Please model this.
Amino acid sequence: MSTNKDYKWIGTRPIRPDGADKVTGRAAFGADKNLPGMLHAKILRSPFAHAKILSIDTSAAESASGVLAVMTSADMPDLASEMGEAGESAVDFRDLSHNILASGKVLYHGHAVAAVAATSAKLALAALKLIKVEYEELPVVLEIEDAMADDAPILHEDQFTPGGSKDKPSNVAAKMKLPRGDIDKGFAEADIIIEREFTTPTVHQGYIEPHAVTASMSASGHADIWCCTQGTFVVRAMTAKVLGMDVGKIKVTPSEIGGGFGAKTTVYLEPIAVKLSEKTGRPVKMVMDREEVLRATGPTSASVIKIKLGATNDGKLIAAQGSLKYGAGAFKGSPMAPGCMCVFASYEIPNFLIRGFDVVLNKPKVAAYRAPGAPMAAFAMESLMNEMATKLNLDPIEFRLKNAVKEGSVAAYGPKFPVIGFVETLEAAKAHPHYSAPLGKNQGRGVGTGFWFNIGMQSSATINVNESGSVTVITGSADIGGSRASMALFVAEELDISYDLITPLVSNTEEAGYCDVTGGSRTTFATGMAVVKASKNLVANMRKRAAKTWGIDIDDVTWEDGAAIAPAAADKQPLTMAQIATSAAKTGGPLTASASLTAQGAGAGFGVHICDVEVDPETGKTDVIRYTAIQDAGKAIHPSYVEGQYQGGAVQGIGWALNEEYVYNDKGVLQNFGFLDYRMPVANDLPMIDTVIVEVPNPSHPYGVRGVGETPIVPPLAAVAEAVNNAAGVRICHLPISPPRLLAEIDAK
Amino acid sequence: MSKTHVTTTINGDAVEYLCEVDQSLLDVLRDTLELTGTKEGCATGDCGACSVSLDGRLVCSCLVLGVEAEGKQIETIEGVANGTELHPIQQKFLENAALQCGICTPGFIVATKALLEKNPDPTEEEARYYLAGNLCRCTGYDKIIRAVLDAAAEMRGAA
Amino acid sequence: MLQVDLSFDLQQFCGGLESLKVQATNIRELLEQLDIRFPGLGAKIEKEMAVTINGVIYQDTLIEPIEDGSEIYFIPKIGGG
Ligand code: FES
Ligand code: FES
Model:
C-alpha cells in the first residue's frame, strides 16, 4: 500500500459533522443534562492528606432541609482486591471503590468521604457541613523518595513489594527491570559518560470540562447514566463492579466530552450518583467544581528519573542505565511500566539496565494522561541526548540518526520493530527551515523526540442505509477531537459516496456494539478498522442485491463511484446506492452492516519537536517564540485534526515544561487549586505551532493509520529545556522551568 | 431565601426570571433558563468558558450576579447565529478546525465577536492578548487564532 | 518452531530461563504450551501481558495465527491517554 494512492476522501479536510452544534452552543456536554425531579448531589472531602476515619455520623445531615439521602462507603459492597480489566489499563476494583469513597482511611487531601443528595446543590453543600467525621491524623508522605524510605509512613498495611519483604508493608507497589547486555562492559568501553537526575512535578490533564454525571435508577433496577467519558463501556463495567450490579442493568449514554486526555477513562462520580438515585428514587446530578477536579481527579505522576548514558567518540550509544520512580498517588498504578519501556525505546543501545518503581504517596490517585509515563522518561533521556550531542560536537539530530531505531531494531522493551518512521521523522526535522533559521540575543533552540506504542483494543461499528441512499454510522467510541469526521471519511472512501451523505453517531451502551475507551490514540485506528470492515460488508451486500436484481452472479458485479456495475453485461445500467436502497425491501430487506474486532498491530508513533525560546535574563521568564512538531501519522485521515493533535499535545508539553506543577504544603494540602495558580498556557504565551505530517504507513491498517494523539506530548519537555539551555546557558533538570527557578540557576552560574 | 425578580433582554428576547441574590448569571442562564450553550470551566473567572456579552461588554458570566442583569442586554452563544445561518466567526471556526472537544468554543466565539466589534483588523498578537482569558486545553490555540484572523478578514470584506 | 524470548521479569517465573522454543500455530496454543512447561505462566501472560509476534503487538487476542519461525516476546499491556 502506498500513501501516494489517490483517495477521494481520505486525507481531505471536510467540516466535522458535529461542528455546527458545537459552534452554536447546542451540543450537550456532561453538565448539560437535566431531568424532571432531579436532585443534586455533592461530596464531602477529606481535610487531611492521611488519616484514619474513626467514625462518620450522618444523622444531622440526613434530617437537614431538602436532603433526601446521604451515602458513605458503607453503602457500597466490600470488594476483595482483584485486578480486573476495565478500560485500557488494569485496575484493582477495591482501590477503585476506595478512591470513589474512602473506606477506613483517607489517603489524600480531598479524598471523597461522603455524599449528600438534596433538592438543590446549595442545600446539598449546606448539609455536608452537618456530617461529623472523626479522624485520627497520620503522618503524610508526599515525595517519592521519602515514600520509599525504610521508615516512611505506610499508606496500605497490606501492600508488599513483590520480591521484597513479606512481613514489612511498603509503599513500593511494583518494580520492573529491563536488562540487556553487560552495562559494566558497556560503560567501560564508553568514551563519554554523563549521569544526571531529573525530576518532574505532579501535573493535571487540565481538561476544561469538569466531571459531570446524571443518573437515574428505575423501579425495575435499571440504571441510566449520562456522563462525559472517554469510554461508556468502561463506565458501565466499573460502575457495575463497584456497586455489585450486572452490566446488563446499566445503560451509559455519552454526552459530548469537553476534553479528557486520559483522565476520563475511570469513574469518580457515576457509582455515587447511581446509588443515591437508587436510595431516593429520583434522578441525581453531580458536577464537580474546578477545585474538586484538581484536588481529586487526574493528575499524572511526579517522577524522579536518573539516567547514566555512555557513548563512544564516533557518536554511538554503547551503554545506558536508568532508574525511573513514579508516584502513583494514593493507590498503586503509576505509568511506571510504559515509562520504563519507552525510556530507551527510540535508540539502539547494546547494553542497558532499566529499573522502575511504582510508589504510593498521599496525593490523588493518578489517572492516564496522554502517553502515560513517556513524557517524564523522554525529558530525562532526551535532555541527556542533547547534552551528549554537545559533548560529542555533533548536531543533535545527526547524533540521533546515528542511533535511531528502524525496522528490525530490537526495541528496548523486547520485540523487534516492524515498519516505523523515526528516521523519516528525524530527516524531516533536519530539513525543516526552522531547524536552520537564525536566532537572536537571549534566544536558543532545542530538539526533543518522542515515542509511543499506540494501541488497538476492541471496537464495533454498524452502518444503516436509509432508503434515499444516505447512511448512518454508529459506534460507541467517544469523539474527543473530531473522530466522527474520520469515521465518515472512511465510509465515504469505502462506499465511494459523498461525505455529506454520512451521519456518524456516537451511541449508548445499549445501542452501539462494544467499544473500548477512546484513549491510547486508538479510535481512528481501531474503531476506524471496524468502520472500514463494516463498509466492506455493506458493499458486498449491495453487490449481492444488484446481482439478484440483474439475475447475474455476484462475482460479475463490482462497486464503483457509489454504484454497482456489471462490467461484462453492457445492457445493465449501473445501480446507484440510492437505487439499491430504495428497492431494498424487494431484494432481501433493509441494508445494514456491522463489524467488530479486537484491533491488532497499532503502529508505533515517533515525533520530533523543534523549539525556540527567548529567555529574559532579568526575570527568568521564558517565552516560546517558534515551535515545530513533526510526527509520523502513518496516514492522516483528516489532516486538520491530526495537526490539532500535534499542536495540542505540544502545548500541553510546553505547559508541563514551563509552568505547571502541583504545589503542596507540608500537610499535603494542594495550594494551587484553580486555573489562576495552576497556570496552563494561554493564547498569548504561544506562537503558532507549525506541524509536519510524515506518512510512513502502518502495514497493519487498511489505510496505514498510526495513532497520533499520544506522541506529541512526549518531546516538548526536553526540547524546551534544551532551548532554555542554549538561550541562557543553564541546564535545567527539574521541571517546571518557572521564572524563579530559572533566575536562581542563572544567578548561580 | 426570597428570590429577586429580574427583567432583562437575552439575545433580543425580553426575559424575566427569579433568582437568588447570590446566584451567578452563569447559573441563571444554564440552570434557570436552560441556555446551556454557555459553559462552566471554573466558576472563578479564570477560563472564559462562560463568556457572554453584557451591554456590549465581554464578561465572565460566572463573575456576574443574576440580579445584575436587570435592565441589561445580554448576548450568549445561542444568539450568535442568525437562525440557521452561522455567523462568519462560527463558520471560520469550523473551516479552520478550531475546535477539538468544543467545550471552550462558545466562550471563544463570544469573545472573538467582542474583539472584532472593537477591533475589526487585529494583529495576531492583539488577538492572542484579547483572547488570553479564554483557556483551551485541546488545540494549542493555533487553529483558533487562525480562525479569528480569517473571520476578521471575511467580515471586513463583507462590510 | 517459535523462538520465545523472555523479559527479565518473566525469567523469574521460569527459573532464569532466557528463551525457549515452542511449537504453536496461534496465541492460544502458545500460551497452553508455556503453561505446560511452567504452570501458571500462560495464564499470567494472558491476563497481564501483550504478545508481540515479529515485533507487532497483539493485545487481548488468543486466535491470532503465528507463522512458523516467528519471534515471540511478551510485554506488559499498553494503555494510553
Ligand atoms: S467559568 Fe467563568 S471564567 Fe471559568
Ligand atoms: S477544544 Fe477542547 S478545550 Fe478548546
